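Late entry, written up from scratch paper. The run itself happened at the end of the previous shift, but nothing got recorded in the book at the time, so transcribing now.
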Amino acid sequence: MPFHKLQRPFVVVLILLIAGCANPHPSRLLAETIAPARADQIAGSHGIFIATNRERTEKPGEVFDGGRAPEAAFAQVEITVPAVHETGRMELAPNPRVADPARYFAAHRAILYAQQNDFENALRDDIAARNGRALVFIHGYNTGFDEAVYRAAQIFHDANYAGTPILFSWPSAGRTIDYVYDNNSATTARDALERTLRTVARAGATHIDVVAHSMGSWLTMEALRQLAISGDRDLGGRLADVVLASPDIDIDVFKGQMRRYGVPKRPFAVLTSQNDRALTLSGFIAGNQPRLGDYRDASELTNLGVTVIDVTNVSSGDWLNHTKFAENPVLVRLLGERLSSEGELNESNEDLVIGRVENLVRGLGQTVGSAADIVITTPLTVIELATGQGRRR
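Output as recorded:
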């Protein structure tokens, strides 16, 4: 439905429904007790490096809250993923005070670095052990610190990413009603994210991927714009893939950001969906302005150096359809394929892309269907991909 025809009662109902899904424990990460688990009950363990401009908190079980800190802080959190984990899901304990690693994602410890140099040295060792690869994930609106950490772990695990996992967490309040606060908080984080990207490069990363979600995409584009203004837009050639998933960015703002950044050497990937209810609400709050994440004119965006991946027809466990990139098994594995492709998974090579997706779908135990569930629009071609969820046109 066009934004100018959006009915106010519908939006009011949507706001109330979203508010009812708010996280009741927005910052609880470390449990009071951790149940024992055998090695065969754990699918993987991930040491997530964290840079954040959130306020430090001393509340039991919490590490950072939704407050804004004047200086960045640095940490590392060890997260285990249970063997019962299903791709695309975040199995979280119903009571965050009790961790059961055999059944749920679990945080085992958090290391706080007193100085940035300590963080950078630890980062350097990890990056060197992973052949110079690193991925920086930036979360979106209404995200508590605990959720940001668990989501990062889920993405790194399900995408089977081989490089160093890094989370940049900006001070979201973790409450639906604080959209304006979150938007302003993202603004306060621009310099911190820019410095974080430079730190990753300085720590020896030769291949830096960036994945941003929702409002985190706006923050990411602002940091990249600042890099471009400084004359170092791709971090000395180290910047690799940039993926913006369900980006909550005013379409005119994004066009301005891309014009200032310039056409990237490797097209940015933008995941869009016409049934993203969270972006519908965001557009309403912003004065009925269309968002990049549900923009319909893909060809217009490709002229800016962007590959548009339309996932409208892809199913998701999220009723808002706002986290498809992480919750749909095919999409999160496809994300991992792109990030690990070293350039050979080029969208201009239609046969290669379709073949990879078909193998991926079969590997997940699905039947390749005949419906174009994913539509990829590049400056050179349009590719329709079937993921076994429907019938081909």
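The chain is about 35% helix and 25% strand.
(Scratch paper discarded after transcription.)
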